[in-house]
Amino acid sequence: MASVKPVSVLSDFPVQSVQSFEICPFKDEVLGAEVLGLDTGSVLGLEDFTRIYRAFLRYKVLVFRNQSITPEQQVRFSRLFGELQIHVLRQFLLPGRPEVFVISNILDERHQPVGLGDAGKFWHSDLSYKALPSMGAMLHARTLPEDGGDTLFADQQLAYERLPEPVQRRLDGLQANHSYTATYHQPRHGDHWRPVLTSAQLEEVKEVLHPVVRTHPETGRKGLFVSESFTTRIEGLVDEESRRLLDQLFAHSIRPEFIYRHRWQEHDLLFWDNRALIHLATGCPDHLPRRMHRTTIQGDAPF
């Protein structure tokens, strides 16, 4: 595995470990590990940070259990891994903490949504529609529904490696278009409302091109980098051929053997690698309240 190259300023950390915790890979799962005994709201030592970051690269999804943290603490912990990105839907940013994007089906006293109710309704990698997509994201469970609300993660490096070699060769060098608005108004879970984007918001989410297969900048592994939510076409192919190839890749990328299903527990904090995975929110009944806080860490240009 490549050496750890965190974006944060390592000289700011105490050199020695500060906390005692365990990292336990999930048994019989294709990816993921839970972190037990760590307080993400407290100080980390350099040794602690390095253990966490190496586990993040290896397991792709880390589940920090029992994190009764404030939004400020979530922001501080997230910033250890890089610069934070601000979501284009400003109306769903936490007041006073614009780094926190609220995902929720709860209505306020004016019967207005406090967060985006149908975030993640199609398979996607966060912010792949940006020139600098997300390196990773953290999602903190604030209010969980009594039923539903699971999140699925699909390993796109494994998906690429399981493609036949002729298909891998065909994908070499291809680029695909990513658009935030591709499925923006398409309902999937209930009848959630989405705001009309202003001209200024549309300027923030202009279409971008990324490689169909990206190389992870730290591990060197190749993985698919297309999704049904944001990828609209493959450059250089006629529309029919592009659609046929994308549909083939979409279907292949979410085969059951590539998927980990996360069943949320109270105060879970998830940290996942958007350079290696796509994910999907399975939804929950509209009458069951759900509120999550997401912080998003900027990555680099895919190659």
Structural description of this entry:
The chain is of the alpha+beta class. The chain has a single domain, classed as 4-Layer Sandwich (Double-stranded beta-helix). The protein is built from six helices and 16 strands. An eight-stranded mixed beta sheet has the order 1-2-3-14-6-16-5-4, covered by helices on one side. A three-stranded antiparallel beta sheet has the order 13-7-15. Helix 1 links the parallel strand 2 and strand 3. The mean pLDDT is 92.
Topology of this protein?
Blueprint: E1 22-25, E2 33-36, H1 46-59, E3 61-64, H2 71-79, E4 93-94, E5 97-104, E6 134-143, E7 151-155, H3 156-161, H4 165-171, E8 175-178, H5 199-204, E9 208-211, E10 213-215, E11 222-224, E12 231-234, H6 239-253, E13 259-262, E14 269-273, E15 277-281, E16 291-298
Parallel strand pairs: 2-3
Antiparallel strand pairs: 1-2, 3-14, 4-5, 5-16, 6-14, 6-16, 7-13, 7-15, 8-9, 8-12, 10-11
| CATH T-level topology | Double-stranded beta-helix
The tally of beta strands, per DSSP, is 16
The secondary structure category is: alpha+beta
Oligomer: single chain
Strand content: 25-35%
